[in-house]
Each structure stands twice: as structure tokens, then as C-alpha cells.
């Protein structure tokens, strides 16, 4: 019940923010589309998976489009509410989180370009634990009775973990103990300190945990689900209506960032080192190798109906959101299509 209350508190916060907002377009970009635009993109956590966005900033692709883009890290679901409130122009995250915020919202959040096209979540276990096989039965036996650091309730890593537990025949609320900290980076210390047996996460958390001796390589990877709209850039509908040129310029630059990361590993690694200066070269290389192996990044920025259907199916099956959605209202590929012509 506490977990459900936590989600309802988040939803109530979104509603209260909405009641205090007009049709402001978010961030520092409002009014006429003239001159340089200051744009803030809210991220739920600083991740290696968001490298195409960092690359577009570092390589000056946004600057060439007349945009001054920066990121802010907003944990605990605030990457969504910050867009609703207008504190951020856009966010990077899952379309399912946007859809939950859009329920009853007259100015919905709409996804405009794909970034991470795989479910960028992995499961790692305390080094003392050994998985005997990879079948659903093996996974069920391995995870049953364990304490799992799953991340914020309602967040994508948490929901994917719950979905997998259900898939292998376990009850997330009875057969395991789910530890759900708001800060995703906390999962490493929770396992390292022995408070939890298993954790979910992505890079750089995976490499950090390996370095600290908390776990070995992941025993399960959700990228195996294939095309999955895990992290997309989204803005409010009012922003699309009032700033179409700015949105187009942003998408143009993001596509260049995606192209660089997918095609120039050397330059991508240099940018990665700037974003994560405290991580060792070995850890960063391992992270990049994993990302390329799992085909993490979108090649063309397009968000397909099938890729959206998967995270929406996850929230439905876990019971977090069951009210349905319309792809045409949740996603707008106009700008990607125009840029790719």
C-alpha cells in the first residue's frame, strides 16, 4: 500500500502542477521563435545511454541550429513533472511515464525523437549467488525469496523487474522483497553493503558495481526484448504548436548526435570520458562495448508503434497504468520524417 500511495502522490503532484500552469511552452523558450534558444532537458539519472544527447551538445550540433541546450538531473519522476511545470523544455525518458502524466492533461507530453531503442536495464546479483540456468523456472528459483533493489516504484527499471517476476511466475509483492529507492544510483551501495541480494541498473552502475565487488556481469538483460522505446525526447504539445521551428532544429541536432555515436566510436568515447570523468577507461570501454553489442541506440530517431507498445504493455501487466493510450497522441514523428527526407 505504501508503494501505491507513493505513486498516487507523484500523480497528485503532477495534477497540482498542471492546475498552476497555463500554456507555457517550458524551459526558457517562450514567445517568438527568434534568436538563440535556451533549452533545458530533464533526465531522470545521468546515464551512458544518453550519450547521443551529450554528443549533440559537446559537438556543437545544437549550437549550429541556434540552440543552447543543457541537461538537469531530476530524480524520483521529476523529469516528467519538470516538463509539466515548465521548469524544463523537454525530457528524456520512457513514453509510458509521459502517458501516465498525460491522463487528464489538456497539454500532453509528446515524444518527438527516439534515443535509446532497447530496454536499457540489466539484473545483477551478489557475487555469492549463482544462477543455474536461464529458463523461466531457473530464474524463478533464483530470485524467489531475494531482496531486490529495483529503483523508484513506477520507474522503468522497477516496472521491468516486476514484469519479469510475473513472467516467470512470481508474485512481486509476496515472493520477493522489492527495495525501491528514489535514487537509481543507490542500487550499487545497497548490494555492496549486503542490504539487497539483486539489483537492476544500467551503465555506469553496472561497471561501478563490478569495480566495488558487489556483483559480476549481469545475469539478465532486458535489451533482449528487441525494439523498445526506452528513452525518447519529449516536449509538451503546446511547445510543438508554438515552437515548431525550434522543435525541428532540436530534432535535426539529435539525429546528428545519434549518427555520431553509432558510427564514430572513437569520438563517442572521448565525449563519454568528459561526461563521466571519475570512471576508469576500462569501465567506460566495457560500458561502450555492452551498448554497441546490445544495439542500444536508435539509428534513425524513429519511434515505431511496436516499440511504444512494449513499455505500455509492461505498465498494463504490472497494473501501474491500465487506461490505455493512443500512439498518435503520444508520439509525433513529423520532425524526424522531415529531417530524414
From TrEMBL:
SUPFAM superfamilies: Periplasmic binding protein-like II
GO-annotated cellular components: periplasmic space
Annotated signal sequence range: none
All residue ranges annotated as the SsuA/THI5-like domain in the record: 51-149
Keyword field: Signal
Location(s), subcellular: Periplasm
PANTHER family xrefs: ALIPHATIC SULFONATES-BINDING PROTEIN-RELATED, TAURINE-BINDING PERIPLASMIC PROTEIN
Family under the similarity heading: Belongs to the bacterial solute-binding protein SsuA/TauA family.
Protein name, per record: ABC transporter substrate-binding protein
Organism: Sporolactobacillus shoreae
